[in-house]
Design a protein that fits this description.
128 residues; mainly beta; four-stranded antiparallel beta sheet; 1 helix
Length: 128
């Protein structure tokens, strides 16, 4: 069993930055691939960013590329999402997720069904 707890959300102005954290517990963290997704009111959950188990490979949605950075610290069992140049359209609940058997991760990282554990989410609100 894996528990994921997100933190770092909040209300900011357009152009500001935030760093989200996702702390994992319950099983050895380093073999997991990790992802961040978000869901705005009335919309489906969408892929934001993902990182391989080693941290050497990252993936981003086009809408956040160049503004968001995903990273992980396996010694701290934590994955981060640094968000800069935030826009009102980034407003959503942000979820982290773990794929504990990332055999096909490089071809499926964007698919929510790839991930078998999810956090409870943290709200990010960006005002114009």
């Amino acid at each position: 069993q894996v528990q994921l707890v997100e933190s770092g959300g909040g209300s900011v102005q357009a152009g500001d930055s935030l760093r989200l954290s996702c702390a994992a517990s319950g099983r050895t963290f380093s073999p997991y691939a990790m992802g961040w997704f978000r869901q705005a009111p009335g919309k489906e959950r969408e892929f934001v960013a993902a990182v391989s188990w080693s941290g050497s490979t990252t993936y981003y949605a086009e809408s956040v590329k160049g503004r968001f950075t995903i990273s992980r610290d396996n010694a701290k069992n934590t994955v981060y999402l640094h968000m800069s140049s935030l826009k009102p359209e980034d407003t959503a609940v942000y979820y982290c997720a773990a794929d504990t058997a990332p055999i096909y991760f490089s071809s499926s990282y964007y698919n929510p069904n790839t991930y078998n554990y999810w956090g409870q989410g943290t709200q990010v609100t960006v005002s114009s």
